[in-house]
Amino acid sequence: MTSPAAEPAPDVRGSSPAPSGAFPSGPRRISGAVWAALAIVYVVWGSTYLGIRIVVETMPPFISAAGRFVVAGLILGALVAWRHGPKALKVTKPQLASAATVGLLLLLGGNGLVVLAETSVPSGLAALLIAVVPAWVVVLRGAFGERPGLGAYAGVALGLAGLAVLTLPGLSGDVRIGGVLTVIAATMMWSVGSFSSSRLPMPANPFAASAYEMVAAGIGCALVALGRGEHHGFDPGDVSTRSWVALAYLVVFGSLLAFTAYAWLLHTAPLSLVATYAYVNPVVAVLLGALVLDERLSWPIAVGGTVVVAGVCLIVSTERRR
Questions:
Q1: Distance CA 50, CA 246 (A)
Q2: CA-CA distance, 262 to 12, in Å (whole number)?
Q3: Residue 230, C-beta contacts closer than 8 angstroms, at least 6 positions apart
Q4: DSSP 230-251
Q5: pLDDT digit string (tens) for 64-111?
Q6: What's the maximum distance between 2 C-alpha atoms anywhere in the chain?
Q7: Treating both helix axes as pointing N-terminal to C-terminal, what angle do 133-143 and 177-197 enclose, rounded to 10 degrees?
Q8: pTM of the full predicted structure?
Q9: DSSP character string of 282-301
Q10: Phi, psi for 18 (deg, rounded to 5)
Q11: Closest Cα partner for 273 from 5, 29, 1?
């Protein structure tokens, strides 16, 4: 989703939530470094929706996504090899296939569809629609025999109610319903990818796994771009300076800096604290969309978004108690 995009529920292995109980229970002192990393995740990932919206002003959606993920994946792979040695990139065929599958679900199906949708959907609304991802993950967990708890299911009900307000024709203003449905499809793809990533044989090094995911997704986005004919008439010289700057921002800050901060947080901070990004990012995205792009914040979007965020808060707080 922007990521996750921009991106809603990523983790160190392909942008999916870390398992419950990944950290020791009991009180823990939160250091300044943790708060700094959390601030990066809050602001940078929240701002990727704005970055995507600016990129697609003058650049075809899947061409931009292909460039972003291939470049970010290659840079991340090079950093892994430099930091841990080339052996860190060594994977088995099943691990490579799993990483590619998760990358295609998360970054092609999830983030790629968000990029496509933002050609017609305001960045703030897209972020609010994507905030419902944790609810879909709870539904998937229940379908596969897990028991998330009544609080989590109540959060799902709230999230879907908010989603209904955001998607009802005419309520959210002059927004194309096709774009809204595209974002919803993206959230489902992202949720399936997030759910699957912890159940597939992934590369041992989580950063290497993410590098393979990004490259696979970038190649997938390039193939979709070719199938859509985005290369016909496309001239890089016609891309505005601000779109190039936004694309560079997404690569460096969205896919590398914020991801690294998030991965570090997963190993350092309580999961319940890290998970708060899921309801802070949409707020940041809405504010930036209104301030920078003058996106209109209608009352249905405000109400529906508030209900969605409340549902996510309930899900996160329920998981914290488990």
A1: 9
A2: 7
A3: 60, 61, 62, 63
A4: TTTT--GGGS-HHHHHHHHHII
A5: 999 999 999 999 999 999 999 999 999 999 999 999 999 999 899 988
A6: 59
A7: 50
A8: 0.80
A9: HHHHHHHHHHHS-----HHH
A10: -70, 150
A11: 29
